[in-house]
């Protein structure tokens, strides 16, 4: 019987259910949980990205309600402008519990920065902005011994990868140890720990560990890096459950899964051109795009994308050329493909309602696009898993933050807004630099019998409040 009212919750960013299931022989503790139906799949949000998913987990709001739909460009995150994450403060599960009089300890909550007043202790770090570690109780926190939290790092080069892996593994352990250090200094009704390093490591290390990846370098000293990272997470999850099982619910989740990043690309704008839905581009822009993609293909063939892109980054227009911003803008047009989720399987198409004479014409165009995308094939295989109107995915007052049409492709495909002659498909040349990508299925594990009943991150906020707060009837 799950009668405990105190809870420890952990988010391990990017931990993947399928990877754990596939490698259960390597994970004795995960295997035990799995066999007892206490390690189960957990659906992410659309799109399966950290920013919208963590916001949903914190608040219980779906992305069309909270409106935070940003994705992280690991190749250019330093130029990212911090979004409006104010929806988190006051609406998070720890705020709800704090208002109920529960004493809370919140450590390293992604995006929740700077710290605000809670009934207890909150320690957090910056992500897309300057600044140091922040806390609501500086009298209780030794800043000098605090490990790096909150922040992100520049992508490591191939030569730096071993050091990056070692340092990130050490940082992960320090974050767990620091959580325990402060958690044990007081008695808390609810505690939260966020660990974003699993996501970071998988993004950069995947190709070194996956023989099926076209950029796999062959036998190398990092070929077990992802496995070792999962084992480190397992060791720390086991410690949490063994040390605190008697008095605490322990709930460990991920915001999305992770695996091999898409190796193919779908040229969405070329498809729109081929359907007569947008105008073709002039010879000059097409020539630049063709040259860009020829160059990237050559770099990818010789596995020198990293060195080549590093050289071209020196030029002012490099990022615009990479993202085809100079060819296709996000300025309102009748129909266009916005920068929605980067080179990933989720994509979108805007259909500007005001450009159509009637609602019927608008809906007819949306249906035409949906029907057309569902017919897209590569080597006689369908590319799309589904294509939907945005309101068919989520309802909410900020649903217009989504493109009018959203589609999800098979995981080996990513969206490319550029052009490569008349081709509909190409290779993701940047896969060599960023080889790990997000998957829709994350994981939930814990010491409660009802763990198996939680199917989606959309349910996490309510679940945590129910098992930890006044609603818990024991």
Automatic annotation (TrEMBL):
<dbReference type="InterPro" id="IPR017850">
    <property type="entry name" value="Alkaline_phosphatase_core_sf"/>
</dbReference>
<dbReference type="GO" id="GO:0016787">
    <property type="term" value="F:hydrolase activity"/>
</dbReference>
<dbReference type="InterPro" id="IPR002591">
    <property type="entry name" value="Phosphodiest/P_Trfase"/>
</dbReference>
<protein>
    <submittedName>
        <fullName>Alkaline phosphatase family protein</fullName>
    </submittedName>
</protein>
<dbReference type="Pfam" id="PF01663">
    <property type="entry name" value="Phosphodiest"/>
</dbReference>
């Amino acid at each position: 019987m799950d009668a405990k009212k105190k809870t420890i919750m952990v988010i391990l960013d990017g931990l993947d259910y399928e990877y754990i299931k596939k490698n259960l022989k390597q994970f004795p503790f995960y295997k035990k949980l799995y066999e007892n139906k206490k390690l189960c799949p957990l659906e992410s949000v659309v799109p399966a990205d950290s920013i919208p998913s963590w916001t949903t987990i914190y608040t219980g709001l779906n992305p069309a309600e909270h409106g935070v739909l940003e994705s992280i460009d690991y190749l250019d995150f330093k130029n990212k402008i911090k979004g409006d994450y104010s929806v988190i403060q006051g609406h998070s599960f720890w705020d709800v519990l704090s208002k109920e009089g529960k004493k809370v300890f919140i450590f390293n909550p992604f995006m929740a920065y700077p710290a605000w007043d809670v009934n207890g202790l909150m320690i957090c770090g910056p992500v897309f902005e300057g600044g140091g570690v922040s806390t609501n109780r500086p009298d209780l926190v030794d800043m000098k011994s605090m490990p790096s939290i909150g922040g992100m790092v520049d992508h490591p080069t191939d030569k730096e990868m071993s050091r990056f892996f070692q340092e990130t593994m050490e940082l992960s352990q320090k974050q767990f140890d620091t959580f325990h250090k402060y958690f044990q200094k007081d008695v808390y009704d609810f505690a939260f720990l966020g660990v974003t390093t699993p996501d970071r490591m998988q993004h950069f290390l995947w190709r070194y560990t996956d023989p099926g990846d076209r950029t796999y370098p062959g036998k190398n000293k990092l070929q077990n890096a992802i496995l070792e990272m999962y084992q480190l997470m397992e060791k720390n999850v086991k410690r949490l459950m063994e040390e605190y099982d008697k008095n605490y619910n322990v709930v460990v989740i991920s915001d999305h899964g992770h695996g091999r990043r898409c190796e193919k690309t779908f040229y969405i704008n070329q498809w729109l051109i081929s359907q007569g839905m947008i105008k073709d581009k002039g010879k000059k822009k097409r020539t630049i795009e063709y040259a860009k993609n020829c160059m990237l293909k050559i770099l990818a063939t010789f596995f020198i994308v990293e060195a080549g892109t590093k050289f071209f980054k020196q030029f002012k227009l490099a990022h615009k050329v990479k993202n085809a911003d100079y060819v296709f803008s996000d300025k309102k047009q009748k129909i266009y493909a916005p920068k929605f989720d980067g080179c990933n399987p989720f994509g979108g198409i805007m259909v500007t309602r005001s450009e159509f004479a009637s609602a019927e014409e608008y809906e007819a165009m949306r249906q035409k696009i949906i029907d057309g995308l569902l017919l897209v094939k590569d080597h006689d295989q369908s590319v799309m898993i589904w294509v939907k109107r945005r309101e068919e995915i989520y309802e909410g007052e900020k649903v217009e933050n989504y493109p009018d049409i959203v589609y999800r492709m098979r995981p080996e495909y990513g969206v490319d807004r550029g052009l490569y002659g008349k081709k509909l498909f190409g290779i993701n040349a940047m896969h060599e630099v960023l080889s790990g990508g997000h998957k829709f299925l994350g994981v939930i594990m814990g010491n409660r019998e009802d763990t198996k009943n939680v199917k989606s991150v959309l349910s996490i906020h309510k679940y945590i409040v129910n098992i930890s707060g006044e609603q818990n009837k024991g």
